Predict the structure.
Amino acid sequence: MLLLGLLGNLVLRLQGQKLQRMMIRSELDSSSETVVVDDDERYWLSWRLAVETNNNVRPWKTVPIRCYKHVENYMTGGQYEHDLNMIVDEIVFYASQIHPTQQDAWILDVDDTCISNIPYYKAKRYGCDPFDSPVFKEWITKGMCPANPVILRLFKTLIEKGFKVFLLTGRYQETLAKITMDNLHKQGFIGYERLILRSLKYKGQSAVKYKSSIRKEIEEEGYRICGNVGDQWTDLQGECLGKRTFKIPNPMYCIS
């Protein structure tokens, strides 16, 4: 009888534990959300990884149409800004370990780094439509490119720390110098060492060759380039890149 009693208690205990596990599993199942990822979203995530993280897809002219809604959500839904903040936090941490002298410099790209062309690309389905040079020029000649607030934060931090900040752009000096300078000043980019635009001397050169030549000239003036920030891989390739380069995201277009 004693043995039967012990067996009975053991069975009851096991049944209770099984019931408890079932209840916990049921609570977890009911509280968890099923994440459904469609084929287009998977394609977008893989495509963005290929073009942004490791530069495996190059050159490319337009964003695949099946990525349209996903790139729109990325650029306007908060993830783009979140990614920028994470990158800029890393840049600021790196810069905080340097005690700059008068010769320590940073290079910042202008278009879609300091100031944004998202309003133009919105009308072009965020890069799914081909680039339209006359329409784009009409947009930038308005001088209404908004600041990229995350990069503006970085810019002000570098200035406050005492770095010499050079703003380097592929825009042509002959036609866009004043418009670009006024646009930058209006958006809060004040206190940089120099704004450098493409002169006729560099007309027709690739972005890599042009920006390499400018960085070399800066170093020949006695500056040490501590960091180089841009949204295009061509901002970060070539010669005289500086001690560190930082790529910020831009899945809307590719400059070769």
